TrEMBL record:
It is a peripheral membrane protein. Mn(2+) 1 binds at D8, H10, D41, H197. CDD domains: MPP_YbbF-LpxH. Mn(2+) 2 binds at D41, N79, H114, H195. This is UDP-2,3-diacylglucosamine hydrolase. Belongs to the LpxH family. The gene is lpxH. Binds 2 Mn(2+) ions per subunit in a binuclear metal center. It comes from the Bacteria. Keywords: Cell inner membrane, Cell membrane, Hydrolase, Lipid A biosynthesis, Lipid biosynthesis, Lipid metabolism, Manganese, Membrane, Metal-binding. Pathway: Glycolipid biosynthesis; lipid IV(A) biosynthesis; lipid IV(A) from (3R)-3-hydroxytetradecanoyl-[acyl-carrier-protein] and UDP-N-acetyl-alpha-D-glucosamine: step 4/6. Its cofactor is Mn(2+). It catalyses: UDP-2-N,3-O-bis[(3R)-3-hydroxytetradecanoyl]-alpha-D-glucosamine + H2O = 2-N,3-O-bis[(3R)-3-hydroxytetradecanoyl]-alpha-D-glucosaminyl 1-phosphate + UMP + 2 H(+). Hydrolyzes the pyrophosphate bond of UDP-2,3-diacylglucosamine to yield 2,3-diacylglucosamine 1-phosphate (lipid X) and UMP by catalyzing the attack of water at the alpha-P atom. Involved in the biosynthesis of lipid A, a phosphorylated glycolipid that anchors the lipopolysaccharide to the outer membrane of the cell.
């Protein structure tokens, strides 16, 4: 019995090394698991479920193949694929989860999330996030032709990149108070998230008891997988070369 967690792959047609590692993972490793959780930022950027490029279809077919083999696949949106929606899920058989969800991991309750909402010191990002998560704006955006959306995203991305380059690493990390607040709110002692690209297992103690926060790694230089069984939790890497 194994449950796998991945996040922050940032898949794009420009990075065939990441895509190849992902395809190997999906075909050789994931079929042996009970469930796969993708905790956001699967894509470098997902413009919308109307993406019909060969690349988008290749990724869809990998998920479809996996879910058809009987593996349950769950998806939490990241800050780069918050526009991935119901259509993609229907086409692939994956299940879209709420931004913050609790799951039962072999008898232990855990809260899972992408992790961007924990970075409360990053005030400009949180403001930006609130804007792009406005339901009316997303409703409108989804109705724009794909090629025009692509141009809008490229334009917004360049402005966003400039702002990010001025931020400190501390500002872009999680806020410990927010972590503890979310864990208390969901009454869990285990949290799993990605986003910060700082893979680690953090242990700390507070009034609620012994807490564990597992941070998933990104896929820039290698694959990164959290394997959980009833006995253990292990952050592992996968090389890009087969
Ligand atoms: O992912 P990572 O680590 O590189 O950076 C994130 C934060 N950045 C983002 C930005 C997205 O990756 C790119 C978004 C393009 C969006 C196009 C939207 C099209 C409209 C859709 C409408 C439904 O998420 C980064 C964090 C970092 O994580 C660490 O936490 O710091 O945040 C930023 O850099 C954001 C800036 O601080 C905000 C700049 C505001 C620019 C104003 C743009 C106007 C928005 C108008 C929207 C239509
Ligand atoms: Mn992210």
């Amino acid at each position: 019995m194994t449950t796998l967690f991945i996040s922050d792959l940032h898949l794009s047609p420009a990075r065939s090394d990441i895509t190849e590692c992902f395809v190997r993972f999906m075909r050789d490793e994931a079929p042996h698991a009970d469930a796969l959780y993708v905790l956001g930022d699967l894509f470098e950027f997902w413009i919308g479920d109307d993406d019909q490029t060969p690349f988008a279809n290749q990724i869809r077919s990998e998920f479809k193949r996996l879910t058809e083999s009987g593996v349950a696949v769950y998806f939490v949106q990241g800050n780069r694929d918050f526009l991935l929606g119901k259509r993609f899920c229907k086409q692939t058989g994956i299940t879209l989860l709420a931004d913050v969800t609790t799951i039962d991991l072999y008898g232990r309750k855990a809260v899972i999330l992408h992790g961007d909402t924990l970075c409360t010191d990053d005030v400009s990002y949180q403001k930006f996030r609130r804007t792009v998560h406005q339901p009316w704006l997303q409703w409108l955006f989804k109705r724009i032709p794909w090629m025009i959306k692509k141009r809008i995203v490229a334009k917004v991305q360049s402005g966003v990149r400039d702002d990010k380059s001025h931020k400190s690493l501390e500002i872009m990390d999680v806020n410990q108070e927010e972590v503890e607040k979310v864990m208390a709110q969901y009454q869990v002692t285990l949290m799993i998230h990605g986003h910060t690209h700082r893979p680690n297992v953090h242990h700390f103690e507070n009034a609620q008891g012994q807490m564990t926060r597992i941070v998933l790694g990104d896929w820039y230089q290698q694959g990164s997988v959290l394997r959980v069984t009833a006995e253990r939790c292990e952050l592992q890497t996968r090389p890009f070369t087969a």
